[in-house]
Amino acid sequence: MDVISNLLKILSDFVADLIRSILGFSPFLADLVTMGLAAVVLITFAALSFMGLTYVERKVVARIQDRVGPNQAGPFGLLQPLADGIKMFTKEDTTPASADRWVYNLAPLVIAVFALASFAVIPLAPGVVGTDLNVGVFYLLAIGSGSIIAILMAGWGSNNKYALLGAFRTVAQLVGYEVPMLLNIIAVVLIAGSMSLIDIINHQTLADGNPGIPHIVYLPLAALVFLISGIAETARSPFDLLEAESEIVAGFHVEYSGMKFALFFLGEYVNALAVSLVFTVLFLGGYAGPILPPYVWMLLKAAVVIFIFMWLRGTLPRVRIDQMHALNWKFLVPMSTVNLILVMIAVKLFPTSEAAARAFGGILVTPAAQALILFTLNIIVLLVSLSLASRAARKQRLAEAELLERRRAANMAAVAP
User: 3-state class of 176 per DSSP?
Assistant: First the structure.
């Protein structure tokens, strides 16, 4: 059973030792080859996940909307992703005559590279991680912001006013929703006491290796806001306004075709998978779980989050762009700020370690008691925020109704004999 649970680590250690034995004359070269092979494995995993997710999403959304979905290419339509890849390879690769060719051609590559680079610090099992950075959370935030550069490059390099406007709108969305995402990640870092993703998983795991209290119990509001922000960051429905037929054509990638468009498509799905894996690490305990191997738990939890993404796409209508920004700046950001302040105070007043209690004072409590306190604070903040938002919306509706009534009365007075 230990062999099955640690299969990925055993295989990775075996390959690393084999490379070192072959290239023992140059340790630097051996490490370089090992890192290169690990990067190839991660890229292959992400690419295969991209192919699988396109098929699964079509099937899931088809079932939700009472359709059949892919069923022609191969048994049960399993070869549909391969057919899509062949179509992208064989489509004509066009470049606008007035485009800035260097910027235009680099943009799809940049967005794909930034999407794949996020997998370098995500642990899939104990000891199976590209690199265990002590600032892994900061690295993910920095890499996630890199797609903004690629989007601006695509909009500017296309030399198309619609692509440029679409890029500006997308950047406004991405930059805006990074704020509540960051605020709620800070809350997790405060509880775990580290920015390392492995340390964050260990904080949700008991000393004997069994799963402990996941952070979604500590911070249900932070988990909810992070999930909403993640959907907006990956530009998925109901926040995929730039791809809506009623909006500005297809947005920043309107001038792209063939494999260049496929790279943008890959970036979207790989980013969605990365957000699901990061959500699993931050709030669901990562690979911690009983009986099943750790990497199975990691993939199962991420699959649940991905399914929520697909479920929302198949059920929710798109929101207007003003509603999207109002939700962020007028609701999520203030609510997340208040929640973060309360979490800071609660963690300070109710530490779980004797060292922290002696150093900073406060009341020493068990992790379960701290989780209950933080859970209660999160729910209170959510209920108060919803109440205030409901009251503000009601006042706005009444004001609009009063204005409409005044206009109707003025029109009636104008046509009266």
Answer: helix
